């Protein structure tokens, strides 16, 4: 395999189940040693795509290559991949050691090699002290590590992870996210994870493919997806956003004029190459953390800011931050994240207060359908 080329190449892959198109002409390349995420809502096709990589489903159209080799006629057990399932699927009657050794014993690996490779896999997953325990003597996170060790002991080129953390509680899931990134860095192989959890994908992946209705809507690094989504679906699915309806009114001096209900005509920074044509309907969005709140109903925020006046209608307290919802004079609601910087049981803003919401024009997203 060419080390400069992709480890996985998916070329115009479609999968149909009767009249249902589960995966629709997907094309993407995944690089060696990359942590890649397939992200999207339930039913978007991400798990079906992962199962085709594993060989459990065959594409209706298109080809999948792994390590430069077409996988069309290659059985699942002959592919240079291994899969970790959502349910872990560890054998309850076997010790941790025997669970990890199982795949090697099936292919009649010599005993001495089994022992050394299992010990290596247990060390990588920090399970050295648990080799003789049964799965029912382990925590959920430890059982997850057993499943990972069992997959890694086969030394695959690619590790496939199907919602591997969904059964864990929130705090353990966060710890295991960091553990998976550490593990991927240490073993130096390609990880592909399927998840519907945006925070999981953002915190772990080098790149993310966002899927909707069997199609890929955008592939990018986490920060690029969040700050520069290419459509409304991606902006809404990745994080929270405040969305206003607008219409392109013209161009002037490198800026795009957008007529927005409740805001009037806005001149926003925009790349001419990517700008929608005049009279196009667009979405104008701003992330809640970009919105600043100022108490009182006095003068607006100034010419260098965009601002709207409203009344605080609701506050959701999350400890480190509060999500403040403001009812605007136009009838819409906008949300802002307020950092709880002072140690106090009383929030700095109260429901019913008049506030100005303001943000920089450069923080506005111009979104197509």
Shape: globular
Using only C-alpha atoms, the radius of gyration works out to: 25 Å
Low-confidence stretches: none
Average pLDDT number: 89
CATH class of the largest domain: Alpha Beta
CATH superfamily label of the largest domain: P-loop containing nucleotide triphosphate hydrolases
Strand order of the largest sheet: 6-7-8-3-9-10
Strand segment tally: 20
Count of individual helical segments? 8
Q: How are helices and strands ordered from N to C?
A: EEEHEEEHHHEHEHEEHHEEEEEEEEEE
Count of discrete domains: 3
Please state the second-level CATH architecture of the largest domain: 3-Layer(aba) Sandwich
Which keywords apply here?
369 residues; alpha+beta; Rossmann fold; 3 domains; globular
Q: What's the arrangement of secondary structure elements?
A:
Elements lengths: L7 E10 L2 E11 L4 E5 L6 H9 L6 E6 L2 E2 L10 E4 L11 H11 L4 H14 L15 H13 L5 E5 L7 H18 L2 E6 L2 H7 L2 E6 L2 E6 L1 H6 L4 H6 L4 E11 L2 E6 L3 E6 L11 E6 L5 E4 L10 E12 L3 E8 L4 E7 L14 E6 L5 E3 L2
Parallel strand pairs: 3-8, 3-9, 6-7, 7-8
Antiparallel strand pairs: 1-2, 1-4, 4-5, 9-10, 11-12, 11-14, 12-13, 14-20, 15-19, 16-17, 16-19, 17-18
Helix pairs in contact: 2-3, 2-4, 3-4
């Amino acid at each position: 395999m060419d080390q400069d080329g992709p480890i996985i190449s998916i070329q115009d892959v479609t999968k149909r189940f009767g009249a249902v198109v589960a995966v629709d002409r997907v094309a993407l390349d995944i690089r060696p040693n990359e942590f890649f995420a397939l992200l999207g809502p339930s039913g978007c096709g991400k798990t079906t795509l992962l199962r085709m990589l594993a060989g459990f489903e065959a594409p209706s159209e298109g080809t999948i290559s792994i390590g430069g080799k077409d996988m069309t006629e290659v059985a699942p057990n002959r592919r240079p991949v291994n899969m970790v399932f959502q349910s872990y699927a560890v054998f309850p009657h076997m010790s941790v050691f025997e669970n990890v050794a199982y795949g090697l014993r099936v292919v009649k690996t010599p005993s001495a090699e089994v022992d050394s490779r299992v010990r290596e896999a247990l060390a990588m997953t920090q399970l050295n002290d648990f080799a003789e325990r049964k799965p029912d003597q382990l925590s959920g996170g430890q059982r997850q590590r057993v499943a990972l060790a069992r997959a890694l002991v086969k030394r695959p080129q690619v590790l496939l992870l199907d919602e591997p953390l969904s059964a864990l509680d929130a705090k353990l899931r966060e710890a295991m996210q960091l553990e998976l990134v550490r593990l991927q860095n240490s073993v130096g192989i390609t990880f592909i994870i399927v998840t519907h959890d945006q925070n999981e994908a953002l915190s772990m992946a080098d790149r993310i493919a966002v899927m909707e209705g069997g199609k890929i809507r955008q592939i990018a690094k986490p920060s690029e997806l969040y700050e520069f989504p290419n459509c409304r679906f991606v902006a809404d699915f990745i994080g929270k956003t405040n969305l206003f309806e607008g219409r392109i009114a013209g161009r002037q001096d490198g800026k795009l004029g957008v007529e927005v209900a409740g805001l009037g005509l806005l001149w926003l920074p925009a790349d001419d190459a990517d700008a929608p044509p005049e009279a196009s309907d667009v979405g104008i969005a701003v992330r809640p953390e970009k919105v600043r709140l100022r108490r009182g109903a006095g003068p607006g925020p100034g010419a260098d800011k965009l601002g709207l006046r409203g009344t605080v209608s609701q506050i959701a307290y999350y400890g480190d931050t509060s999500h403040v919802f403001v009812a605007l004079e136009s009838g819409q609601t906008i949300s802002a994240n307020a950092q709880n910087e002072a140690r106090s049981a009383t929030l700095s803003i109260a429901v019913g207060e008049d506030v100005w919401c303001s943000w920089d024009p450069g923080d506005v997203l111009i979104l197509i359908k």
